[in-house]
Amino acid sequence: MFLVNAKIARRLLRCRRTLCFSPPSGKASSSRLVLGIETSCDDTGAAVLDEKGAILGESLHSQKEVHLRTGGIIPTVAQQLHRENIERVVQEALERSSVTPGQLSAVATTVKPGLALSLGIGLEFSLRFVRQHNKPFIPIHHMEAHALTVRMLQPVAFPFLVLLISGGHSLLAVARGVDDFLLLGHTLDEAPGDTLDKVARRLSLIKHPQCSTLSGGQAIELLAKDGDRTRFPLTTPMGQTYDCCFSFAGLRNQITMTIMKQEAEEGVKQGTLLTCVNDIAAATQHTIATHLAKRTHRAILFCKAKGLLQSNSPTLVVSGGVASNQYIRKALTLITEMTGLHLLCPPAKFCTDNGVMIAWNGVERLREGKGILPPNVDVCYEPKAPLGVDISAEVKAAAIRLPSVRMKIPN
User: What tens digit of pLDDT does each residue of 295-354 get?
Assistant: First the structure.
């Protein structure tokens, strides 16, 4: 629940307007426009969408090159870059959409979860903006936005299963409505995108001529195409734990030990590119893909046993930055084809963080009148925030054992 000033909240309750503030009149419902603002990590994004999901204008400032040079995201650096760029990014989105602030029906902004310093910049700007222009404010859960993005692109009815995988998150959930989720499993330590980035840094892939401008995940995927994944067998995490949670820290430790052994064999120090870097990349990618596929397989079986998905054409939606990885998509395709689910993934540009997905989440909430606040309500950002109702303990209690599946994934 978003935190609001208690005094104001009581006043809102008396007025029967809590979480259902009506946008200013004078604009037809068919032309309601939402400005979305995203600053949860290292991308400053803004976009204007109409009620049908048409992208009228967008702008995105990526900090990737800066963080590649520093070897990872430094929160204070990300904060400063957001501060320097947010006004320009929002202004560009408005100008490209030919929309003035007065024409907006609402402003939607990511307020949870994410980097505290980054979230703070977006929230501070947004609250100032809605108060200046007297617009409703829609606080957005970042993972909810990822989950719903696919509905902007094609009709996807609730309920559906969603796998969200990124640099900061990894979770499986059943989406039953715009703001109604059942959390089946989550990461116990780090996210898959974080693991890929750390392995890439340990391998010094920024020194590789093909990878100098790529993120860690992109570099691993590129080099893995020419690698032999069988050369370095890695153990898939949590093989004897029959739930839908994830763990990647132990796998990363396996990979680090493999790298150290190869450095010793080749007689090189840390920071030198290994001759077998493609093979390590391939083994890393395959094991992460297998881990994600197996946990998703169990989630599908659990949902079928409990009747949580549609009986006709049940759907798995995969989103988040790591969902751009084509090898991981192929691994998940093996599972969905076996279990009779329809796999949907947004295009790569909508998998990574952007203002479009935040605006769309705002559109969905505006349609249903959910979580819409008047401009004078105080809202706090939340760096850590679970998605929906956690039923992971129930999933674990079911102790579903998976049938043997040969993960033969074409590269």
Answer: 999 999 999 999 999 999 999 999 999 999 999 999 999 999 999 999 999 999 999 899
Q: Give the Cα separation of 145 and 191 in Å (integer).
A: 18
Identify which has the larger pLDDT, 110 or 72: 110
CA trace torsion 321, 323, 324, 329 (10° rounding): 170
* Residue 334 structure tokens: 């093996």
Does the pTM exceed 0.85? yes
- Mean pLDDT for the stretch of residues 71-93: 94
Residue 28, Cβ density class (10 Å: 0-12 exposed, 13-18 middle, ≥19 buried)? exposed
What average pLDDT score do residues 108-136 get? 97
Q: Provide the 8-state DSSP code for 50.
A: E
Confidence of residue 28 (pLDDT cuts 50, 70, 90): very low
Tokens encoding 347: 């295009």
Give the count of beta carbons closer than 10 Å to the beta carbon of residue 312.
6
In the predicted model, what is the mean pLDDT of the chain?
91
Q: How far apart are CA 110 and CA 86, in angstroms?
A: 13
Angle between helices 277-306 and 192-202 (to 10 degrees): 170
CA distance 6 to 298: 43
Kindly tell me the sign of the dihedral angle through the C-alpha atoms of 35, 40, 45, 51: negative
Question: Which 3 state secondary structure label does DSSP give 387?
Answer: coil
| Identity of residue 107 | V
Burial 205-235 (b: 16+ CB within 10 A, else e): bbebeebeebbbbbbbbbbbeebebeebebe
CA 78 to CA 76: how far, in whole Å? 5
Peptide bond into 383 cis (omega under 30): no
Reported as type and span, the H/E element at residue 120 is: helix 116-133
Q: Are 382 and 388 in contact (CB under 8 A)?
A: no
Cα–chain-centroid distance for residue 64? Answer: 16
- Residue 133: how many CB atoms within 10 A of its CB? 16
